[in-house]
Amino acid sequence: MSLPMTNDNTAVSLVDVSTYLPGDAIGADYYAQFADSDDLRDNLMFRAPRFRHHVAPDETAIDMVERAAAGLIERHGADVVTGADVLITHTQLPDMPFYGGGGGMAHRLGMKPNWVIDLHNGGCAAFVLGLKLARNLLTSGEGHTALIAVAQNAAGQIFEQETIRRKAQASVPGDGAAVGLVTLSDSSPILDVECRTYGEYAGDMTISVDPPRKWWAAGPGEGCIGFTESKITKVLARGNRQVPEVSYAVCDRIGMQPKDVDLLVTNQPNRVFLRNWREALELPAERHVDTFDECGNLFAAGIPVNLDRAISDGRVKAGDTVLMSAFAHAGDFAGAAAVRWGGRV
Predict the structure, then answer these.
(1) Does domain 12-186 have CATH number 3.40.47.10?
(2) Read out DSSP for 52-97?
(3) What pLDDT band is residue 9 in, cutting at 50, 70 and 90?
(4) Considering the entire predicted model, what is its pTM?
(5) Greatest Cα pair distance in the chain
(6) Residue 264: strand pairing partners
(7) Which residues pair with 183 in a beta bridge?
(8) pLDDT in tens, 11-54
(9) Coiled-coil region(s) at which residues (predicted)?
């Protein structure tokens, strides 16, 4: 459904997005050979995708972002990237614990931005949070162009540890990266963004190590996400509620029903969430991008990778309204954004 052009003289647009998936696709049989007894193996949360991609052992988040940016450079020229005023980044597993990857990414891309901001609280909804932050900075006069760079790199590192890859949770994540190009223009306007923090749930995602220790402390045992049946039930309930809530909030403000959007793009933790979100928003499967069986759970890279896939496959055309929505971690953050897609140059 097409909407009238905005009268806002400082409209901000998501002009393009380019992505990167590392290495060859890894099939589900890879994990089947390591499968061990696991109380959660039959849980709906951990039904494995057919394929996923893993970062190489020596591949950094900066490498991934550089490779993801190649599509933008090819289509828009190197100057668009090197001359960007703002760089907003999110890395699922920072290469160094004491500082974010934004500075290194800016250097690798040849940028000298006025703003370099590393996000972590956005989690799987970090791309939406990045859109809101980029729009606010650009409309306040802090520049003309922003890049939003996200890297999911935990699958081939955390979940590929020798004792962790035996667990049901290990077969679900996949790795990937994306870079979005945001500019002051009305070519592909960001119509609205809703971000909500649910701080009361922030402590519900934990690292599990046996025997217990601080994540940074030396000792035996490899760390993974501390899932239990009780935690999974809570996360399912929160995700099923939060994504529709932020989606409806955005749609209400832009004057349309979710069922009328042309394309829904979400994060993709598992098939259950994907189905439940479609049903809650009354959308058919063909209007909801889903690469779960090809890429697995891409965390923050899920939305931009799926959007890029939809654009490349011709599933979204100029004038279409695209709704992006996601929740993060154990439900401590959720966000949604609507864009009137202007077409890829």
Answers:
(1) yes
(2) E----TT--HHHHHHHHTHHHHHHH-HHHHHT-SEEEEEESS-SST
(3) low
(4) 0.95
(5) 60
(6) 288, 323
(7) 13, 145
(8) 999 999 999 999 999 999 998 888 877 777 778 788 899 999 99
(9) none
Domain spans, the chain: 12-186, 191-341
Give the phi and the psi of residue 118 in degrees, each rounded to 5: -95, 125
Q: Tokens 């306007």 sit at which residue?
A: 189
Other beta carbons less than 10 A from residue 39's beta carbon:
10
Cα–Cα distance for residue pair 342/114, rounded to 1 Å: 27
Burial profile 93-119: b = 16 or more Cβ within 10 angstroms, e = fewer? bbbeeeebbbbbbbeebebebebbbbb
Tokens in use for 5?
Answer: 């052009």
CB 85 within 8 A of CB 57: no
- Write phi, then psi, for 250 (nearest 5 degrees): -65, -45
Residue 277's CB is within 10 A of a number of other CB atoms, namely 24
| CATH number of this structure's domain 191-341 | 3.40.47.10
Q: Tell me what the mean pLDDT of segment 114-138 comes to.
A: 97
Tokens of 196: 């909500």
